[in-house]
Design goal:
Strands 1-2-3-4 form a 4-stranded mixed sheet, with helices on both faces. The chain has one domain. Helix 6 links the parallel strand 2 and strand 3. The longest helix is centred in the N-terminal third of the chain and has 22 residues. Helix 5 packs across helix 6. The protein is globular and about 40 Å long. The protein is α+β, with helices and mostly antiparallel strands. It has 6 helices and 4 strands.
Length: 158
C-alpha cells in the first residue's frame, strides 16, 4: 500500500473516532433539535391523498425491492435540491445503508467521478453526504463517498 493510501486511511479512522466521541458528548436533556428530527417529521407527514388514504404502501414495496443506490436516488429525486439531484446522479453503488445499529453505522457511496480528492468530485461528494444524511438517520453514522477508482472523495455524519 502506498504512503498516500496509509495517510488517507489514518485520516478516515481518526475522523470516525472523533465522530464517535462527539456523538456521545451531545445533548444531556434528551431533546431532539437536529436535522434528523426535522427529516423524521417530514417523512411521517407525507404520503396522503386528498381523500385521506395513503398511497405510500405500494411505493414502499417497489422501493424495498430496489438496490440501495436506487432507493437513495429515488429519495433525492423526490426530496433533494437541484444540486443534490445532479450530484446523486453520479452515484453507482451504496453499501451499508440498510445495516444500522446506532452504535457505529458506516455506509459507503461509490460514484463515477475520477481524480480522487483533488478531482472534480470533491464538491459533489459533500452534497451526496448531506443528501445521505437526509435519507438515513443514525445516532452515530459515518457515510464515506468514493470515486470510480475507490479513492476517498469525502465523508459526513448521518
Amino acid at each position: 500500500m502506498g504512503m498516500k493510501s496509509k495517510v488517507v486511511l489514518g485520516a478516515v479512522a481518526g475522523i470516525a473516532v472523533i465522530a464517535a466521541v462527539s456523538a456521545n458528548s451531545g445533548d444531556a436533556e434528551g431533546g431532539s433539535t437536529g436535522k434528523g428530527s426535522s427529516a423524521s417529521a417530514q417523512q411521517q407527514a407525507g404520503g396522503s391523498k386528498a381523500d385521506g388514504t395513503s398511497d405510500t404502501k405500494s411505493e414502499d414495496k417497489d422501493v424495498e425491492k430496489a438496490s440501495q443506490a436506487e432507493q437513495f436516488k429515488a429519495f433525492v429525486q423526490k426530496n433533494g435540491t437541484a444540486k443534490e439531484k445532479e450530484a446523486v446522479s453520479h452515484v453507482t453503488k451504496v453499501q451499508g445503508a440498510d445495516e444500522q445499529n446506532n452504535i457505529l453505522d458506516a455506509a459507503d457511496v461509490y460514484t463515477d467521478f475520477t481524480g480522487g480528492i483533488l478531482g472534480e468530485g470533491t464538491g459533489p461528494a459533500k452534497l451526496i453526504a448531506s443528501a445521505f444524511a437526509d435519507w438515513k438517520q443514525s445516532d452515530n453514522g459515518l457515510v464515506t463517498v468514493y470515486d470510480a477508482d475507490g479513492e476517498l472523495l469525502g465523508n459526513g455524519k448521518f
